[in-house]
Structure to design on (233 residues):
């Protein structure tokens, strides 16, 4: 999945295999009206985005540095393709019916929720800050953050021995956010960093709505926390 990534987004797309071990997913109430015809419809409408590497067969961790391989024009083309995708579906009902299912959730929903933001409310901010995001993505500071994130994410389960709640995964993503914050804020401004936070938080909440990212400190609501790390782009 090469996706929302381009959108800068740190979008930590959680590993599809890891997600499957989470109790939240196992206990999720799947929709009852998503049949094969509906799934085929989504796949058909998603062909253009899939050919661009936006939708994929499995989740994958995506980080800020991946924006370096995508141009602003590619971002605009992606959003235009997303508009056509929604038009092809003919409304949001089919998403509501199918996106709660696996593998539809990890293949489409996690990416879709990011596209909805960066091609919607966050679109102008993405365009305005694209060159700035690009310069930040090429910095050594970001490279160091991504190395640390990869190491922390790989050891999350061992560190916490409580992966079913997602506390470790939520902590890993928050740590990454805190690490890249200075570079983005100092170079691009606070508003641009808020765009990043919004884009990162949305896919996380697909699987663990109780993991709330903070622009300063980790905020986790009681009971459950997080176990994805998403999208992605």
């Amino acid at each position: 999945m090469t996706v929302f990534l381009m959108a800068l987004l740190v979008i930590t797309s959680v590993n599809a295999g890891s997600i499957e071990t989470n109790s939240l997913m196992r206990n999720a109430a799947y929709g009852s009206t998503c049949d094969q015809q509906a799934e085929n419809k989504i796949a058909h409408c998603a062909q253009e985005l899939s050919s661009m590497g936006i939708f994929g067969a499995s989740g994958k961790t995506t980080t800020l540095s991946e924006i370096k391989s995508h141009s602003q024009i590619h971002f605009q083309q992606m959003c235009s393709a997303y508009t056509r995708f929604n038009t092809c579906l003919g409304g949001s009902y089919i998403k509501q019916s199918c996106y709660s299912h696996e593998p539809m959730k990890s293949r489409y929903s996690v990416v879709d929720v990011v596209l909805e933001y960066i091609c919607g409310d966050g679109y102008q901010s993405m365009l305005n800050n694209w060159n700035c995001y690009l310069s930040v993505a090429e910095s050594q500071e970001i490279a160091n953050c991504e190395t640390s994130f990869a190491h922390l994410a790989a050891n999350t389960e061992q560190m916490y021995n409580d992966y079913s709640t997602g506390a470790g995964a939520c902590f890993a993503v928050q740590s990454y956010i805190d690490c890249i914050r200075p570079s983005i804020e100092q170079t691009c401004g606070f508003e641009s960093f808020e765009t990043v936070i919004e884009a990162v938080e949305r896919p996380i909440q697909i699987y663990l709505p109780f993991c709330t990212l903070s622009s300063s400190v980790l905020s986790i609501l009681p009971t459950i926390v997080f176990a994805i790390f998403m999208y992605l782009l």
User: Anything to note?
Assistant: The beta strands are 211-212, 219-220. The chain has one domain: 4-220. The two ends are 7 Å apart (CA to CA).
